[in-house]
Target: Bax inhibitor-1/YccA family protein
Amino acid sequence: MERDYSASRYESQAAQTTLIKNVYLWMTAALAITGITALAVNNSTAMQQLLFNGRASFLILIIAEFALVWYISARIDRLSFTTATGLFMLYSFLNGLTLSFIFLAYTASSIASTFFITAGTFGAMSLYGYFTKKDLTSWGNILIMALIGLIIASVVNIFMSSSMLYWITTFAGVIIFVGLTAYDTQKIKSLLGQEINETSQKMALIGALSLYLDFINLFLYLLRIFGSRRN
Model:
């Protein structure tokens, strides 16, 4: 009985480790798709004109992204794993189209350096969230409320155009998504099952989507600080 228990425990730990690896593999694949897509748009004058010469096409893309994230999150229980994966990759492609604007606003070298700063910060906080013994549950409500406040302040500043509010939201955004990276990592670790099946794979995929969004948003806020604007 003792040997059976040990073997079962080992298999459960191995399954959870595999699922965690899948979370980061899917997140990395999505980031790669986003980056390649953004670079492709940057190298295509025709695509830039299509996306940025009028507000309509860009606005449609933004709405489509929000709708897609909502659909994946709300319907994950009913979607097949294959369909959910395809929708996640589609979202990362659409996000690459919209994020291509950064190449018009910032120099390529500052984008690259900020990406590595983001990767290092994200990696450190994700490791902290995974290995810490501290329960980060209390962070969740605080960070979500702070995120809602950040969104409201950012929308207000569209009309106010306040440089002070711009920098307040920038540093607040960095702090919020640094915290969310650790919180989401610990939450994903606790939610993943100890058996590899379609349900646990879909939970891992949703975890990858959460960390992908944390990374992208952290990158964009850090780019405000470290990015060198084009003249």
The first helix runs from residue 2 to 42.
